[in-house]
Design brief:
The protein is mainly β. It is built from one helix and seven strands.
Amino acid sequence: MPYTIVDSGHQHCYNNLGEIPLPNPGQPFFGQDGNFQGHPPSYTMSADGLTALDNQTGLTWQRVPETNLDGKLTPDEYRPQFGPTGPVGPAAP
């Protein structure tokens, strides 16, 4: 089953001591992410801003706000609150 792998943008390769020139096929350390350039990340935000479509894979991702601005997404921020019709947003911190 074919599928798209979104490129990370990583352009460097490493051995066990540090960064190395990009190795060629058959050379030691070939096959790292830096050896492959592919499909750049591309996203389309939904009209309501609650989801983002990955234009490369076709997957839809839920956006989850980091509500207390501490730079970390905690379970309380991620866990949705449920109303009579389903999720209504992240729980208050």
